[in-house]
Design goal:
Helix content: under 10%
Order of helices and strands: HEEEEEEEEEEEEEE
Radius of gyration: 15 Å
Largest sheet: 11 strands, parallel
């Protein structure tokens, strides 16, 4: 079992404070909830098959094929890529470099050149980047970038930088 702060107990899903996506929605919607300021993600629904726990240090280019990745360690430089799946960054995660995934859930800290989430970026941590590109941005943390490009956005947190709304992520 992965850390409780990133798995979504059934009781939390019934009464979220913000951000429930999935229950009652189409089967293609990811499932997460924010309760008491903590981002919780359903690892089964997001097909998380790989985990790197706190204390681990990775460097260089890392690509995950097949399934998603829960990451709570430190990543220095290079590209952290889950091109066809979900990347969940736990509260202890520190990521420096480029992040590319279909869906990204962030509770950690990113100092990134680029953050690219093809479908969804849920940020309840800190992102400092040159570029953030996503279709849907749900932000309750700090998202600061020279350029933020999105199709739809919901934010109760800090968004700082040049913000550009587009009609389609393909324009980005």
């Amino acid at each position: 079992m992965l850390p409780s702060q990133v798995s979504a107990p059934t009781a939390q899903r019934q009464a979220p404070t913000i951000g429930l996506v999935g229950e009652g929605a189409s089967n293609t919607e990811p499932l997460y909830v924010v309760s008491n300021g903590t981002l919780a993600v359903d690892h089964t629904a997001e097909d998380i098959r790989h985990a790197v726990q706190a204390g681990a240090l990775l460097a260089g280019d890392v690509t995950i094929q097949g399934g998603g990745l829960f990451f709570s360690g430190t990543f220095n430089g290079g590209v952290l890529s889950v091109p066809d799946g979900t990347l969940i960054l736990g509260p202890e995660a520190v990521v420096e470099g480029t992040v590319i995934a279909k869906r990204v859930y962030n509770s950690g800290t990113m100092q990134a050149k680029k953050v690219e989430a093809a479908e969804l970026l849920v940020n309840w941590g800190v992102i400092h980047a040159e570029s953030v590109v996503t279709t849907r941005l749900h932000n309750g943390g700090t998202c600061a970038a020279a350029e933020i490009t999105y199709e739809s956005m919901e934010s109760t947190g800090v968004v700082q930088g040049s913000v550009k709304r587009i009609e389609s992520a393909k324009e980005a």
